[in-house]
Amino acid sequence: xxxxxxxxxxxxxxxxxxxxxxxxxxxxxxxxxxxxxxxxxxxxxxxxxxxxxxxxxxxxxxxxxxxxxxxxxxxxxxxxxxxxxxxxxxxxxxxxxxxxxxxxxxxxxxxxxxxxxxxxxxxxxxxxxxxxxxxxxxxxxxxxxxxxxxxxxxxxxxxxxxxxxxxxxxxxxxxxxxxxxxxxxxxxxxxxxxxxxxxxxxxxxxxxxxxxxxxxxxxxxxxxxxxxxxxxxxxxxxxxxxxxxxxxxxxxxxxxxxxxxxxxxxxxxxxxxxxxxxxxxxxxxxxxxxxxxxxxx
Length: 297
Fold this sequence. Notes:
Elements: H1 5-11, H2 13-16, H3 22-28, H4 34-46, H5 54-66, H6 76-82, H7 88-104, H8 109-116, H9 119-128, H10 133-144, H11 147-150, H12 159-167, H13 174-187, H14 191-194, H15 199-211, H16 216-230, H17 234-242, H18 245-252, H19 258-271, H20 276-280, H21 283-296
Helix pairs in contact: 3-5, 5-7, 6-7, 7-10, 9-10, 9-12, 10-13, 12-13, 12-15, 13-16, 15-16, 15-17, 16-19, 18-19, 19-21
InterPro entries: ARM-like (IPR011989), ARM-type_fold (IPR016024), Armadillo (IPR000225), CSI1/2/3 (IPR044297)
GO biological process, one term: regulation of cellulose biosynthetic process
Organism: Pisum sativum (Garden pea)
């Protein structure tokens, strides 16, 4: 029978690349020994190259869909590799498993393991290709909200793709837009990241979110991201002004939503902390900002 790791090992790698055996593999995913089978297959996969066969990939996806009990049986490295599948069902199953693993972890070990095996880059690619956007954005935000991960080199390379995703006219998934904006705000809690050259693109992207009929929640998230961006960077202040952000946020100070109004006023106060506005805005805008600050703060 094929219910033991040793029997599986004797089959060799070619067995799992043989499409004719897919039905057998799918069957194995639904029998009582699926837990043992999943554990062995996962260990086997870690030693393979990135192009493992459709049969194994499909079997693992079937195991994940069969029961959430098996989420713990598939190593993080394998789940991250499954995110690169051409099957949306497989990607969705792997994303669900990774989210459960992360939420069940009392430390940041799982999140760090994901980042260490390339999850951030793969999730950004899923967003770029508009695949499983809501779930991918949710997991990406979780990772980028991790302080230790924000200190790694990979996060710097996430700024531009996230900004481009928010500026992409094809990005229509509202929840994904919200989470991507939140992820940018997470990144710029790190002062060093807020000072990078790519942060200018994030300024434009955040202003664009505010201009594109956002919900009140999205307004607050975008404004908070901009607050983090301008707090320590003169070039980011200029970028916001040049993108038309002053008037956009000035209009939000009069919002009927208290949180939106307060955050908008706080942002304007941050922007008004030096001569940036006087240099780039009209005198009428400066007077309007001054009046708004006096009224709301």
